[in-house]
Amino acid sequence: MEKVIITAAVTGSRNMRDIVPNIPYTPEEITQACLESYEAGAAIVHIHVRDPETGKGIQDLELYRQVVEPLREKTDLVLCLTTSGIAGRNLPYEHRLVPLELKPELASFDAGSINLGGGVFSNPPDFLDVAAEKMIEAGVKPEIEVFDTGMIVTALRMRDQGKLLDPLHFQFVLGTPWGAPATPQTLLHMLEFLPSDATWSVIGIGKGHLPMSMMGMIMGGHIRVGLEDNIYYSRGVLADNNAQFVERIVSLAREYGREVATPEDARELLRLGN
Ligand code: ZN
Asked: How far is the CA of 195 from the centre of ligand 1 (A)?
C-alpha cells in the first residue's frame, strides 16, 4: 500500500479558546503548532490565520506571510492554505483567494455550498470558476474539499470543462452537522465516483475523527487530523495540542504496516508541481 500522507489542520477558524484553551491564534502560535506537527510526522499543514487579538478567522495576507515564511525557512512541509474564508460571512472573492499570492503548493477548494457553523458556507458556481482559474494561474493545486456527494459531481464536471486539471486530489470532510455523515458507507460510496488517477484524504469531524482515520488507513487513502476538525483526543478528553493527533496516526500506521510519507513523498504521491 502507498505511504500515508498525514495533514495537520492546526487551527481553522471556528474552535475558540473558551472551549479549547490551547488552540493557536497568533502567527507565532500557528507556526509553532505546524512545526510540532511536522516533527511528529505530518507532511502537509493546512493553514488558516486568525486575528491575533480576537482569535477570529481572517483572510489577511501579512498574517499568512508570518506563518508561511518561517515554515519555508525551517521545514520542507507542503503548505495548504485555506480559501474558505469564514463560514456565515460572505467575504469578497479576492479576500478569500488572497493566500494564493504566496503560491502554496496546495489550497483548499470547497466544491459547493452547505450550511456550516450556524451560517451558510457559500461557494456559488461563479466563485468556483474564479477560484479554479486563479489556482491554475498561480500554479497551486486545488485540494477539493467534499462535504457531500454533489460536490464530487461538481468537481468532475469542472474537470470535463477543463477548469480543474488531472490528477484531482480530494479531501472528504465527513461528519459536519449539516453534511455527509462520517460513516464507512458514506466514504465507500464517495470513492466510487473518483477517477482512477485521483488521490484522496479523509477528515472525520468531531467523533468521526478516529473511525474515518482508520478507514483512510485501511483503504489506502490519506488522513487529516488536528484541532480544526476535532478537539477531543478521546471521549470527553480535550486534546493538548495538534501533534498528539499526528503521533496517534503515526503509531496506527506503524501497527498497520503503512509507511508515513515525508513531505517529499507527498509531493510525489500528489504529483505536485506537475
Ligand atoms: Zn480549513
From this structure: 24
Radius of gyration of the chain (CA): 17
Distance 78 CA to ligand 1 centre (A): 15
- Ligand 1 centroid from CA 256, angstroms: 28
Residues of the chain with pLDDT under 70: 87-88, 274
Question: What do you get for the CA distance between the two ends of the chain, in Å?
Answer: 23
pTM check: above 0.85? yes
**Ligand 1 centroid – CA 107 distance (Å):** 10
CATH superfamily of 6-269: Aldolase class I (3.20.20.70)
- Strand 232-234 versus strand 49-50 pairing type: unpaired
Domain boundaries of the chain, sorted by first residue: 6-269
Q: For residue 87, what pLDDT is reported?
A: 64
Q: What is the pLDDT of residue 91?
A: 86
Q: 212: CA distance to ligand 1 center in Å?
A: 17
